[in-house]
Amino acid sequence: METAPRSDALVVFGATGDLAYKKIFPALQAMIRRGRLDMPVVGVGRSKWTLEQFKARAKDSLEQHGGDGLDPAAFAKLSARLDYVDGDYGDPTTFAHLRQALGAAQHPLYYLVIPPSAFATVVDGLAKSGCVKDARLVVEKPFGRDL
To answer: What is the mean pLDDT of residues 43-66?
Structure first.
């Protein structure tokens, strides 16, 4: 049985949002502590932030929601892996910048922490930019609007 290649980059769409702030960054720190995160982590958002602002948000997240708080050694490792792409999900330029940020990564895992109404836009942008070959896609939100 052939196994799929291991992901070599994690891309989080919606990385500047509340769910990433409260849950994703603490989970990434926990993965670093366990030696389970050894790939680039690219945040994609529409907040008009710089990379330094994105890293500051990650640090604040860990201080506020990190369970055991900020682990300076783990955060240093996480921070070294972080990159950030700012842009509109409907703009092809955003996906061109993402392709650049991925560098040599060939098997990214795309984690969509965005409203379900934006799923199709992001997936279409990924496909048109050539970012989907051998990629994985995870959606965080449920598909419905009510029970």
So the answer is: 95
